[in-house]
């Protein structure tokens, strides 16, 4: 089947529409970060950089570290951007742009998110690291794609009952990380987490400035949810989308989080840049 121009949009220079990348521009090991400025924060550790491209909020550097080729790309904030980034990264390695047809041989990417997050359990210290073993998505992205047997309906049902979830909202979905990448980054300094992915930073995460969120009790319900001793640990805005699309497209994915805030105690890191730097260095050491 040949993909139509309105489905697979290719720029005049042969690059994919939003990311502005050519197939040869990316490695099969890809680090995603939200903030475009964090791309340099990662790539400054590379031995060499061969690609530097950017368009909108999507900035990409590809280089080598200890002989390993790695790409780092900024996604911006939210699962709507993740939908763009993961689909277009997959297209770069699994679609022939000249014929607009799917390649016979599938290429699997290793996708590692390095992000910041807020803990919702009081015993999770500021500036520590957490791996999202599970994600709970409020965004509904998974439901826009055909999917079978990748989520955990038993956990979802228990969560819906615990929170008296509004039936007019998207059904929350639960996914897990790549076991392969989880083992790669396993360390006694890093906590295994159950991460909730929100659709916004303020109201959806029960932050109140001048508008009162509609469910002020939701944060407490999130922090008290327990499924066979599995508790929610933190809130952020991308992980569920990454896990969803990675599994649907046949890629490996893991989300590494630096705890910059603790919503239970009200604390925020006084050294956020240094803390993220330590997580970046840990990640690159394991990869290379």
From TrEMBL:
GO molecular function: purine-nucleoside phosphorylase activity; uridine phosphorylase activity
UniProt-listed Enzyme Commission number(s): 2.4.2.3
Catalytic reaction list: uridine + phosphate = alpha-D-ribose 1-phosphate + uracil
Domain Nucleoside phosphorylase: 29-265
One Gene Ontology CC term in the entry: cytosol
Gene3D superfamilies tied to this protein: Nucleoside phosphorylase domain
GO biological process terms on file: purine nucleoside catabolic process
Domain of life assignment: Bacteria
Region forming the signal peptide: none
Name by which UniProt lists this protein: Uridine phosphorylase
Organism for this UniProt entry: Maribacter ulvicola
